[in-house]
Amino acid sequence: MGIFKDIESNVRGYCRAFPVVFRKAHNATLVDDQGKEYVDFLGGAGTLNYGHNNPEFKQALIDYIESDGITHGLDMHTEAKRDFLETFQSHILEPRGMDYKVQFTGPTGTNAVEAALKIARMNTGRQTIVSFTNGFHGVTQGAAAVTANGYYKKANGMPTTGVQFMPFDGYLGDFDTLKYFEKALEDGSSGLGHPAAVIVECIQGEGGLNVASAEWMRGLQALCRRHDMLLIVDDIQAGCGRSGTFFSFEEFDIQPDIITLSKSLGGYGLPMAVVLLKEKYDTWKPGEHNGTFRGNNHAFVTARRALETYWSDDRFATEVKHKAFLLKNRLKSIQARHAGDCKHKGRGIMQGLEFASGEVASEITELAFSRGLIIETSGSDDQVVKILTPLTIEEANLNKGLDILESCIDEVLAERLRVANAS
Amino acid sequence: MGIFKDIESNVRGYCRAFPVVFRKAHNATLVDDQGKEYVDFLGGAGTLNYGHNNPEFKQALIDYIESDGITHGLDMHTEAKRDFLETFQSHILEPRGMDYKVQFTGPTGTNAVEAALKIARMNTGRQTIVSFTNGFHGVTQGAAAVTANGYYKKANGMPTTGVQFMPFDGYLGDFDTLKYFEKALEDGSSGLGHPAAVIVECIQGEGGLNVASAEWMRGLQALCRRHDMLLIVDDIQAGCGRSGTFFSFEEFDIQPDIITLSKSLGGYGLPMAVVLLKEKYDTWKPGEHNGTFRGNNHAFVTARRALETYWSDDRFATEVKHKAFLLKNRLKSIQARHAGDCKHKGRGIMQGLEFASGEVASEITELAFSRGLIIETSGSDDQVVKILTPLTIEEANLNKGLDILESCIDEVLAERLRVANAS
Amino acid sequence: MGIFKDIESNVRGYCRAFPVVFRKAHNATLVDDQGKEYVDFLGGAGTLNYGHNNPEFKQALIDYIESDGITHGLDMHTEAKRDFLETFQSHILEPRGMDYKVQFTGPTGTNAVEAALKIARMNTGRQTIVSFTNGFHGVTQGAAAVTANGYYKKANGMPTTGVQFMPFDGYLGDFDTLKYFEKALEDGSSGLGHPAAVIVECIQGEGGLNVASAEWMRGLQALCRRHDMLLIVDDIQAGCGRSGTFFSFEEFDIQPDIITLSKSLGGYGLPMAVVLLKEKYDTWKPGEHNGTFRGNNHAFVTARRALETYWSDDRFATEVKHKAFLLKNRLKSIQARHAGDCKHKGRGIMQGLEFASGEVASEITELAFSRGLIIETSGSDDQVVKILTPLTIEEANLNKGLDILESCIDEVLAERLRVANAS
Amino acid sequence: MGIFKDIESNVRGYCRAFPVVFRKAHNATLVDDQGKEYVDFLGGAGTLNYGHNNPEFKQALIDYIESDGITHGLDMHTEAKRDFLETFQSHILEPRGMDYKVQFTGPTGTNAVEAALKIARMNTGRQTIVSFTNGFHGVTQGAAAVTANGYYKKANGMPTTGVQFMPFDGYLGDFDTLKYFEKALEDGSSGLGHPAAVIVECIQGEGGLNVASAEWMRGLQALCRRHDMLLIVDDIQAGCGRSGTFFSFEEFDIQPDIITLSKSLGGYGLPMAVVLLKEKYDTWKPGEHNGTFRGNNHAFVTARRALETYWSDDRFATEVKHKAFLLKNRLKSIQARHAGDCKHKGRGIMQGLEFASGEVASEITELAFSRGLIIETSGSDDQVVKILTPLTIEEANLNKGLDILESCIDEVLAERLRVANAS
């Protein structure tokens, strides 16, 4: 691994937690250059909902490459883009009664967020965006401003401009955080002014698997409507099926004004991002938000296949919900056995356990890695062990991973108890 | 094309100038869904230096995919990344005596620029960045702030913060713009303060093919050294061989503190971006600048092949210089025939002709498209017809494209003259 | 009044509520150019704590002028400044065990606030300031950013930068707002980051007479200490005796790091402002925060006399507390008679009644003006009728004013009830 | 002087250069507490155009105070304000054919500048302000952003937002700086965008007595008109007669959209400031830019007297021009004797000599102080010895001061020459 240490920047991160060199992968299994296999509960941080190198899409991609299909086409029309758009329309938007324009942005989540903030500001002529505690939306300057984590904010090196933070659902215990938000909106002297938009995740991935309730999300949308603010749902991590439905807010009966999607949208782990926006807000002039890689046609090919394969009917969603149910039961039972030491969080296949500190959580994930499980932490103190495994994971593999995880939790907590009692 | 009009956002741009649906492509040839072929003088806006679907890389990519090589791995170590790093080190950095760390950012140019600005601000504890007239660096908030074009700046919707613009080489005619910059730096009361860094392109692509001279670039580096500012060269469009050397500044005998690369780096048109930074500035903490698609392993595979294929010796560079020479002669002769109506600009295979207005330039490129040539305009008024064809273009195809272009120029200028005389 | 309408800017405000031309004034009595007298419950918005044209200071000022004492001296040493500083030290700081440096800023409250924010940012190297809902700190750009009122914020024309707002004491009903603040500070991912400082008023004057409790203020100071943030108390309106003690926080047993004073500091209604800062934060370099009128020597003369006259012993404070007690009783009794229609707010001689809307409050103050009482509204909707009469008001005059006020309240509320019942 | 050292903030500035305690003053003479007299060539940094304690205004002020005239009246109508407005209208605006609304801002120059920037931004809906190299406009956040001096900018602690700097007249030697400005405006990709307004001083006081030519100022106004930007002339230091006419731009035949005045406007050295704005830009809503001391009625009384005494006819202006002529001759002759070592700068009674460094200039002013002359330096390196004496200075006193100054220059330059030759 000398070359990494020699010339890769110190900014590298995940490779420090998982210090091996990976060679190949399939579905929820990673294989390193020694042939060792790992259960993947990381799932590309939400990018590999359909697993590594999904065989359904793989052949389509190879066929496309072999046919010399357009690989890079800026934002010109291509057959691959056309096919993706038609499939997205027929498989996702139409069945859900959703009427949105699709903007292809630079193929990263942060770029989609930047585009969403711009269009919200342009449409309203206002500059303040409301974001929430523990929200994560990216690290480019505009997205970092709406990202709550001080680690990224500090690295951004610029003061937060045009953003005010509000407490997320549950942040103030029993106190209804929307009441505070509403009061601040109605009170012309709250410091909030009249925001252009609200940006929110239904399930906060990086923030520690905090879940917004249906009631809260509906209340938030109502607030946006009453106060003429655009509602932006950042569904980059929680979208594309992870919650059990394609969008994480489907069961809430809301219609955000703007939606950002990325990560698993490309299907195969290939870079792709879109902004969905209601037609009346599609006031862009040609090329106003541009970028070289808006047309990642390989991703269009696999994205389309993903939609066709998994979203033609409700079988996949049902399967995801079933696995989420299994996961929840398992985690709840662990919580029950370690009452007070860990707490279940999340929903869909975006669940985890919160421990007393990032230190405890890290001990667990490090031990797990040594036993063949790749899993990361999240939350403000990295105190939440987070399961983001591919939705397509085989049940056996899921259980195998959970077994490793549970044993590690048991051992780490037991050892900690022993030390505590000894001292 | 109904689906595009129906649901693709109004932000779409290039597809308006080239309103067909493309199916496939090879080297400098694009083919639409009717089978019609086009000479590609656009080259993915600098992304397709090695041509569309370069056969050298294509098989490597297919092999990798077939072997279930890691596609998406966040920023974990993979064999593909290792191989890329080793090749980049051996083929690019070492032979040029360059000692840099490599940071994989989100796979877009704008993301690399954002990372560069952050690290410059963090290293210096200062916030002002100096950018230049007609500079283009991306459209996310931080990059848009250093982008000179008001079209993007306005869409950004936020006031320019922490950025001051200086005139680029030649912007003030015979007046040495570095003298102004130097005076402003030495004068504590110039309004400039003490900037953290300077960001500059050696050849301004979007800005209209303005070329910085070797002397000016050396002077700029000297100014940066004397005044303790970091020199960031944004080589996203002019790099990866387009100027006739791998980096656009190689013949200037300078060593920027930070270099951004993207576009053709991935080789095959796949999204990829890096920041090169001198070790002393690599003060990143793990994950401070993160992103889901930092590890686009498909791009690593093709990027490595591109380096091996084209940068193992100087044959490719020599070939590029030869084509650039042909191009220059041809454009100079057109200029000579239309004295006063067009002006040669640029260097390397990044040359073009400046016309009286964007209107004239657009007439030419529209006519060219109808005749099978894809070529775009650039510059503040889109008044520059810009040739960014793949460096690998066959000479016959290059000449074919130039023939079309020349005939269109002749006709448009003649018609304009006719109308002018008639009125 | 033609000249005002003809050439004074539309920005003029108070004169619209009190559309007469005033000629002279003494203590709490204003006289217009027709000789009509008005009871002054406005008190120069807190500037005339010692009444209009206080005879104790008047002669000192005339003597100083007649002696050709320095009127304008930039920030040079003058006898008048020396005498003021010695008196401020002996009469205010020393008796209270307060060890502060005195910075003379431009002679307006907003200028003192700007200086306070700068020095907090410079001392910490951080940029975020926390301000509170309904806080008012001035209208220059830096002060407007920490001012909560959207009316001023919008006029500022720039996005709020480097400021986050927190709910003031009582803003969330029974929910302890400091708990939210503390959680946000301890949570590295709350969006708040690590602020440089907190700026707060103990009694929010413009914000509608919201009162911070001693416990809350102590908790806030403790929070600042624990989290290494500077505590700035803006005592511009509530200071100089208005609360019943010289500083509004004296009975709270706290020691802010920075205190801003202005308004009644000059004693005679003359422009003057200071920043008090603990010595360790006095890291200013000479002239870093400058301004032409820092040395308003006339104000130094009257300011010193005010301190000598009213703060040599505790008689004045006792008198103020007595009047505050009378005021409270009277307002509480009005509240009792109009249960549900108005609510007592404030403390010291900074009390008032909150009505259902700004409309009701305005009707009352307009009626009051017609009957010879000058009184203004405050609060986010101007719904609070605010009594800021000179602390030196004669009890007879105070009662006269209160009689007028009470009769107006009775009539306006009765008429509103009549109309409501009729419809 | 113990008290100053003990408790006055380190920010104190002028008192360090002139370390005595002043007692009284008349016209251009200051007297310290030991009875020592000084010739005042500082003139309150432009505030004392009519001299210290001008006897013409003194009695009016005392009479007003004795009559209990309104001292502090917020922005209510008073007789003193009415009389000032009528006199300003009849003596200043009407005779010059100027049609402006008068806004009373907080009584400091920086506050007037902040108001001017706000109203420019609100009227245009744009945020960028263009300011010039060496411009000084104040130290509150908005004004500091348009101030060129890095010393204040750094203390401001926030990145410059919404401001771009352009080179002032003469900054680039023979190169016409307006050509650069114009090119940047016409070039949509210059980085400048479409500014809301330009703020400029006709004579840069703090910036080192740089003088804009009539041609340049007319060109600047024409540029503003062509590009729909507001022209703000900051006449705070150069206005009120200092240039030889009331406004510093009168002989240029221009009509700025907005003018800021302060310093000598109050006449007696009392805090006062106004913004003059063309009626169509007076779009303020009531109280949008407010402040406690907008109505400094003492200053209205003396300001009116100043207008009546000195601006009823052209005698005063003629006298000022005559003194400016004497001053210029004297300084030019000094320059001639020390060819190469000092250079004449400025116009009106705002002239000085530029030396090789701030060190030389300081030696001269220190020596001068020891000989009874108070004079300051300005410029980016404090290299300009600046004469800002009261316009009313007696010719004998003027000559006395110039004699001292000349002797100090001769001695300091001679000594420097001696040392240089010796080494």
Can you characterise this structure?
- Four copies of one chain form a homotetramer.
- The first copy, chain A, is 40% helix and 16% strand.
- Chain A has 14 helices and 17 strands.
- Chain A has a seven-stranded mixed sheet.
- In chain A, a hairpin with a 4-residue loop joins β2 and β3.
- In chain A, α4 runs antiparallel to α11, α5 runs parallel beside α11 and α13 packs across α14.
- The longest helix of chain A has 28 residues.
- Chain A is globular.
- The interface between A and C is large, with 43 and 43 residues.
The residue fraction in helices of chain A comes out at: 40-55%
Low-confidence stretches of chain A: none
Going across the biggest sheet of chain A, name each strand in turn: 4-12-11-10-7-5-6
**Most strands sheet of chain A:** 7 strands, mixed
- The quaternary structure here is homotetramer
Which chain pair has the greatest contact?
A-B, 111 and 113 residues
Q: How much is the average pLDDT of chain A? A: 97
In CATH, the homologous superfamily of the largest domain in chain A goes by the name Type I PLP-dependent aspartate aminotransferase-like (Major domain)
| Cα distance spanning the termini of chain A | 40 Å
How large is the radius of gyration of chain A? 21 Å
Query: Which of globular, elongated, flat, extended, rod-shaped describes the shape of chain A?
Result: globular
Question: What's the count of strands of chain A?
Answer: 17
Might you state the CATH topology name of the largest domain in chain A?
A: Aspartate Aminotransferase, domain 2
Element layout with pairings:
4 copies of one chain form a homotetramer.
Chain A (H helix, E strand, L loop, with lengths): L1 H6 L6 H4 L4 E5 L2 E4 L4 E4 L2 H4 L8 H12 L12 H15 L6 E5 L4 H16 L4 E4 L8 H6 L3 H7 L6 E4 L10 H10 L10 E4 L2 E2 L5 E2 L2 H13 L3 E5 L23 E4 L12 E5 L18 H14 L4 H23 L4 E5 L4 E5 L2 H13 L2 E2 L1 E3 L5 E4 L7 H28 L1
Helix pairs in contact in A: 4-11, 5-11, 13-14
Cofactor (chains A, B, C, D): pyridoxal 5'-phosphate
Family (chains A, B, C, D): Belongs to the class-III pyridoxal-phosphate-dependent aminotransferase family.
Keywords (chains A, B, C, D): Aminotransferase, Pyridoxal phosphate, Transferase
